[in-house]
Amino acid sequence: MIRLLYVSASRSTADALKNDLSDILESSKKNNQALGLTGILVHGGGMFMQVLEGPDHQIFRKYSEILDDRRHADCRIVLITTTEERAFPDWAMAVLEISNHEFKGIQEIIASHQETVDVKAFSLVIRSFMSRLAGK
Ligand SMILES: Cc1cc2nc3c(=O)[nH]c(=O)nc-3n(C[C@H](O)[C@H](O)[C@H](O)COP(=O)(O)O)c2cc1C
């Protein structure tokens, strides 16, 4: 199994954002469940961060489809790891809206580890998202 984490820039206008997010969530829930994919989509400060987990070929197929989506741009893979265990077993996809400030924290982690991303730092971020999702 693979865990893939990428960031991208949202292209939705403020007016369209709410609808775009709910459309993305709706198709993600439907498609991801059928493909055995799980994960979360975090939005904040005009950026997306998504974690996708699942079988290798399904991950790469879905990611290449997501790359072509005009609702965002500048997709950048931050982390790919093989894993035996899902970090988000309970969500075919969940959307979490965070503040600009919180997203800045994520960007700082990315910027400070340009070549090799510190998996530990990301584990902490992921864990904090998990505990917030647990309240949903
Ligand atoms: C930031 C972002 C994340 C997305 N994540 C997923 C996803 O996890 N699963 C998915 O099926 N589609 C996702 N999409 C939507 C796909 O790009 C595509 O629109 C969708 O899979 C089309 O499927 P549908 O025709 O069944 O709606 C995402 C789009 C964006 C912009």
List the helices and strands and how they pair.
Layout: E1 2-10, H1 14-35, E2 38-44, E3 47-54, H2 56-67, E4 72-82, E5 94-97, H3 100-112, H4 119-134
Shape: globular
- DSSP strand content: 25-35%
Figure out the total of helices: 4
Q: Please count the beta strands (DSSP E, at least 2 residues each).
A: 5
The largest sheet is:
5 strands, mixed
Task: Provide the residue-averaged pLDDT.
Answer: 86
- What's the architecture in CATH terms? 2-Layer Sandwich
Please give a structural write-up.
InterPro entries: Acylphosphatase-like_dom_sf, BLUF_domain. GO terms for molecular function: blue light photoreceptor activity; FAD binding. It holds the Pfam family BLUF. The chain has 136 residues and is an alpha+beta fold. It has 4 helices and 5 strands, in the order E-H-E-E-H-E-E-H-H. The mean pLDDT is 86. The protein has helices at 14-35, 56-67, 100-112, 119-134, and strands spanning 2-10, 38-44, 47-54, 72-82, 94-97. The protein has one domain: 2-Layer Sandwich (Alpha-Beta Plaits), CATH 3.30.70.100. The longest helix has 22 residues, at 14-35. The structure holds flavin mononucleotide (FMN). Flavin mononucleotide binds at residues 8, 24, 27-28, 31-32, 41, 48, 50, 52, 62, 65-66, 69, 71-72, 93.
